[in-house]
């Protein structure tokens, strides 16, 4: 596994501007720093997990421009200008995202390590709009390994939120048809697709300057 | 991972000339395999040229018929593109059988064909590998070769090409548009990948500096009688042990044209056009399918742990053909298990 | 209307932290001037390092140091100092202890640099030359060199034979025999092993470590590095899965500590997924079973010889064949368990160690035996039901396995099962139903807990245990709230810190019983304090009341004889002038109970598979797992434990296999792409049933633990279902399509035992 000597020069840092959870971060990063390590080690947003670092487990799933990706297999410098949403940007202040709430209700996790990736992935799945049945959900959530084996509960949580959304959509449609618009502000957090919003911003202080 | 310089290319011409200047540089699009390999020091490009800003992310109908898939369209966007779903459902099925939703959101049409083998030995510097380090030997030949090739192998390499998408592209007869140092050219998808021979370090026939700009799907669409059957060691998110892409043109029960490509069995998506002739004009029966499968696998060689693939591939071909002929209606099998 | 929580479902109290990404795992603690480590592992399985050249690595800007066996000094001379609470017989592995290579992927160097990326690059530049020795890694090829398993690992007992099994077997008319094999498996929790080491001052360190036992790590590190116990603080509030891999301290915490102490810096070391294959695993096994029965279905003999792998330097033992002596009524039993030494890392406990290995073989054999006399496999098990522990000749404290049979079979619809294999079919799919049962120890260890009740009525409980996803935080909160009559929101349970009272390793399914009993005990003491205080209050109905006269609920104290006489706990403390109550308590198993009774949890598993008749693909479409594990503290979290165990069992039966290339002596599929664990799509309907099981003897809480019992019988239930679907007995896990089709080159099913006479 020898690297040739020509590589001994370290890569030059490049200014990178990342929009994470609605907050602009102006960083100077070497191009070999993955988006995952940037989130965890540079921005102290440790909610995004490293489970394999090779795109084989899904723990590092984040939303980039509304789409779910493995943050371990992309370099941060490549995401200049993109809107990135991590698990820390999903809740609306103290109000949990419906999926977060459903995960708790259905006990859709045990150790919790895959959970942020599962939730981000589920939001991505709902944004895609391709999962119509439980079987679809199972296939389209198979990029997120849960070693504790909470799959059936994960699926129950997702199906519940999908149904809630479908009901909400019907309600909204009926309301619009009847000319009433006062529910237009209904549960913003459940609207799929909005990759960034004015969420509770997690800043450097969250990661803490000390280990306590 | 080695230290590398990151260059963001603005247009295809610039990308090609930038890469041409750097003998060991690499383009990066999705990065799903390149960074995976770089983390293991398998790939060590001193220059990584980011082509994601190139204007190659569209899917558009071709004037003479057919569909052009931009190289930077993601696998997910391709699989779920309305025109692809309607007219080339085989491609949608194959793409969706591969990787995970997250990876398909990253991986691109230009990058997918260029992913490298998943051979354990290729990935592990502790073992010899002719693909990784030419001349060191093939560890898989006498090693644990469950996932390895049975067709078109050489004594130097028995690695497989891991893509699902490419199996469908091979069956559909796609063409690859390439921009190179000496201009643009188009090659048959069949000629993109190569067999290992005595140079297994070369996966394909691209020249250094070549950039896949798009992949063209032919006018001929195969809208109905198609099947993609993928056999693997778990139900999803695993590479194929054997996969079969089938596209049939039928007239009632009669086969007018058959396209059958195999994945997971060779260094490239495998197709036997001569054998396909065998099916032309024949009724879609299990006997014809079995005879065809026997022909396709007649030159197969097992290396121990992967010998089962010969029989498995035959069964998979029969099943996929049966499914495609029946327009996805599964029929009870007549064949006993043991 | 009472504050009763145990036995009731409650959502995880740590749920909000986990779904928001705020739960912090070992590699997620920030620190000033943090350095990063990257481990270098050996390419060979046996030999020695001749030279190790770190010049190029050290030449990189940002590299602080490279640790190898050449520059690690001043550590203890004594091997015994490297022992830990889950050690086995033998000599523990000493990371960077010498130039000897004992197994492939052995850690041989640590690079410490200013960034993870620099450390990773530098590690790849280290030049090593080896002298290779021959190695042996093929378990099946080495059975002739097996040896008796020595004592040494806590809990290990050698299997006991009885009667004359060989004679009974010879004389029997109906008999079966078979050889069962499964490959090594790696735990692969989703969080990789990691340590963040904080250098506090000379000789003092804080370690955020991924572990199932902070005390074990503390003891190990202080012994190895010669630090005072109180100067080693180990913290582990959240663990991203472990399944046994966090029981023994691993080289990550050793190396991080080494570098931190040496460099006087804070260091983070996260292993790679590949490196998660560089230490203990569930040992591969070969098991030979012969069995006979009479035509009435009575077992007349059992012979079970189990061979497990171990390393060259330690003897890892499991309880494997022993289970075959206890599960059923049988007079003639011959059991053997032997080890084969291989050039691999010492195996380590993995979810239901031993029991799951044993059940795969033994419960498959039971199915084969039932088929040999053409009897329904469940009926066969009922006939041979063991009312008491057949080895110890002691009654069980409780054993509701029959209820598991009844309720599991009813839920599954077992009564509609045709006996003949290959008798159910849906299109291309052959449908099969199989079942198996299993047992696990209901253990209890000494544990301590602390309680602080503040003047505002809030209770903080703590114990140095861990929650690896098992629900410890939640059930301890429930126990505390119930014992003191508080709301769940009023109680906080803290764990995973050596500053807290000591708890046993989090394993063996004993945490709920052990720590739970300590928590209950300490809360009882607080309660007594409160009652004493109340009885001294003037002008209240409580005056001079006796302890036994009191009750608590909803944050209030009342008199049993006069429930309307109530005073809030806050008021009791205020009126007594007490700001807080601090108590510590310890609990442990009752040594007398063990003399008179045996303690086991039990489960019966029913599985449905669909097997493609042409392609051999197996899908587990339905599982019912009926469990008898005493009182269930929290059906919601306990149900998840069983659910997860079933998923593990499916994964084990169909997918998991660490492939050793014997040429290189190396696990080759060291990634999550090629080491397959179950994904979402693999998992279908799973029903968990907890049958009623009342047990006053097992421990004060009447609970048996649920972390392991769920997995034990899953793989054989699936293997038996595959047989029922296809008529093919796959005795070699995992059950892959090539084995089902009997076209696998390495298929060991060629010597077919006649099954259906």
Automatic annotation (TrEMBL), chain A:
Record GO terms (molecular function): 2 iron, 2 sulfur cluster binding; metal ion binding; oxidoreductase activity, acting on the aldehyde or oxo group of donors
UniProt keyword Metal-binding present: yes
Highest taxon of the lineage: Bacteria
Annotated stretches, region: Disordered: 177-212
Keywords: 2Fe-2S, Iron, Iron-sulfur, Metal-binding, Oxidoreductase
Keyword check for Hydrolase: no
2Fe-2S ferredoxin-type domain span: 14-90
Name used for this protein in its record: Xanthine dehydrogenase YagT iron-sulfur-binding subunit
TrEMBL record, chain B:
Cited InterPro entries: CO_DH_flav_C (IPR005107), CO_DH_flav_C_dom_sf (IPR036683), Diverse_Substr_Oxidored (IPR051312), FAD-bd_PCMH (IPR016166), FAD-bd_PCMH-like_sf (IPR036318), FAD-bd_PCMH_sub1 (IPR016167), FAD-bd_PCMH_sub2 (IPR016169), Mopterin_DH_FAD-bd (IPR002346)
Domain FAD-binding PCMH-type: 1-222
Keywords: FAD, Flavoprotein
Gene Ontology molecular functions: FAD binding; oxidoreductase activity
Protein name per Swiss-Prot or TrEMBL: Xanthine dehydrogenase YagS FAD-binding subunit
Superkingdom to which the source organism belongs: Bacteria
From TrEMBL, chain C:
Highest taxon of the lineage: Bacteria
Pfam families, per database record: Ald_Xan_dh_C, MoCoBD_1, MoCoBD_2
Alphabetized Gene3D superfamilies for the sequence: Aldehyde oxidase/xanthine dehydrogenase, a/b hammerhead, Aldehyde oxidase/xanthine dehydrogenase, molybdopterin binding domain
Molecular function via GO: iron ion binding; oxidoreductase activity
Start and end residues of each Aldehyde oxidase/xanthine dehydrogenase a/b hammerhead domain: 20-134
Regions annotated as coiled coil: none
InterPro entries documented for this protein: Ald_Oxase/Xan_DH_a/b (IPR000674), Ald_Oxase/Xan_DH_a/b_sf (IPR036856), Ald_Oxase/xanthine_DH-like (IPR016208), AldOxase/xan_DH_MoCoBD1 (IPR008274), AldOxase/xan_DH_MoCoBD2 (IPR046867), AldOxase/xan_DH_Mopterin-bd_sf (IPR037165)
Protein name as it appears in the record: Xanthine dehydrogenase, molybdenum binding subunit apoprotein
Provenance organism: Pedobacter westerhofensis
